[in-house]
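Narrative progress, year one. The postdoctoral researcher (J.K.) led the effort to move from monomer predictions toward full complexes, under supervision of the PI. The following entry was the first complex the group processed end to end, covering 690 residues in total.
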Amino acid sequence: MRDGMIELLRSLGHALSGAFQTLGFAARFFTTILACSGQSFRRLHLTIREIYFSGFQSLLIILVSGLFIGMVLGMQGYETLQRYGSSEALGVLVALSLTRELGPVVSALLFASRAGSSITAEIGLMKATEQLTAMDMMAVNPIARVVAPRFWGGVISMPLLAALFSAIGVFGGYLVGVVLIGVDEGAFWSQMQGSVDFRLDIWNGIVKSFVFGIAVSLIAVFEGYDAVPTAEGVSASIKRTVVYSALAILALDLVLTSFMFRGV
Amino acid sequence: MPTECLVRINGVSFAYDDRPILKGIDMEVPRGKLVAIMGNSGCGKTTLLRLIGGQLKPTGGELLVDGQSVPAMAHDELYAMRRRMGMLFQFGALFTDISVFENVAYLMREHTDLPEEIIRDMVLMKLNAVGLRGAHHLMPAELSGGMARRVALARAIALDPMLILYDEPFAGLDPISMGVIGQLIRRLNDALGATTLLVTHDVQEALSIADYAYFVADGQIVARGTPGEIRASSDPFVHQFVFGEADGPVHFHYPAPPFEEELMRGDVHA
Amino acid sequence: MNRKLLDLWVGFFVAVGFAAILFLALRVGNLSSAGFAETYSLTAKFDNIGGLKARGPVKSAGVVVGRVAEIHFDAQTYEAVVVMKMDSRYQFPRDTFASILTAGLLGEQYIGLDAGGDDRMLQSGDTFAKTQSAVVLEKLIGQFMFSKASEHIESK
């Protein structure tokens, strides 16, 4: 019984110190990426290539999901609002939900599973096949050459994807609300414009997605770089990228929201 | 030694955490020679290459490349030294997302500002040297194991290095590819005036091309000599290794309590 | 992949992304309408501001002429102090009447300005002399019932 307790405490301590160690390594890794970033911007084509892979190739899923979510918001919002006789406020509801919350959060979740996981897989496989070691032996810094461009590609793509998600979502809400259900078009747009503030709602949404972009990209490149260099190790890392990204996005969202919209 | 040494290793030891891998290695690699390091799997041969390349730091001893101490080098000096080294990895480690041509051109693009036409000519020259000029447009996934190894070889010699390191260049190859790679290693060493350090467990192939050979076992050098001396050696370890005998100084069995005792006990899982 | 083609697609992606931000800013948000080029500030004190919020509109004759910049509480007079950023294109006489009104029955609250007849205009930093507080529904109902009750007594 007592041995069991000690054993439990010991394994808890092990897990805790392991977690701190990983966190410390991640912090050191992050500063190394920042230190190496000069190189990846001087040779811009490396970063452009990564924007293509993580940004452009995520366009389809972002646009389709954004449209659907906007349409669902239009239907559900109308259903609720018309009970209180204020269906003209549909535009406000759709636009605020998207720009403040759903746009940044859902697009970041999609980005983590579409682009984040593939970044992890790519870097993990390069590690497993000794490509990173080979690079290092060729006097090419793998963090500057492989990791930093992918990190910045993700950081740059994320806010653009989130803005696209929100914009197409508003359009989806418009399609359902105005075109399909027949809410007055003028009221839809004017109420929206009257209540959606650029700085408070839209800009804060962009800031959120930027922070999510940093978090997801960092988790993705870190898990790839830290992967156990075997097939099982890489697949475990991909899983961790998706899970940790989702947790980080939602936790950061809570923190950012409480800072941004407190008392308003 | 009368000839000048490119790589000099004095009493180098290395340990992962508490597990010793190398226990006091002494070794010399003369300029222009092809030196083979042999030993069974897991004896620390690859670790030795990593130490020479500066990817690991020894826990003790002295390690000089071209008269400079590798463990004492700062990051920039280390990278400057690595530019004069070429390394062939165990499974080639080609960059899988770019073509054969780009793989060989990689270092030229990274480290030089040569115009595109010159890079093109140089890449085709290197590929021609390994007999794969016709395959320059292929992707690494389309190559056989032997071809991938040759492309990796072309990439390793892209910038005419002074020292070429080979980590198990023969692993997983059929006998023909093995012979091809062996001859290439020898020819490239002589043609480039480079120095070659070859780590392998393939004794026959290595002895047929090397100028000098070291045998490593259990983190120590157990035998050394020219191929002729090695073949004639009466050392039981060398004999076992050269002739591939199942049992000898290197045991077939992993250390365990006596077999009869363990069978009688019947509670291995307890 | 060809580097030129790659650049093209990435350029397209970035352009579409910025277009989306522009769409959000101009069509969805109020960047086009809310940004007054030059502003001056006015202050008004109210006994009760009801549900007025910072950034709420200041309207005169139904046209937005300013926005509520900040709201705080004056501990000496126990009044709410509302600071407004006014569009400098519009000037108001010194005896302008500021009241807190509600858009519709349950809509958002805003400050309504009824211009007076004074020759001198309010300058930046000035305070409105006459204000009317928000109508609190509970008080209104209370008053109504009280007056009904007194009518009832009088008529007897």
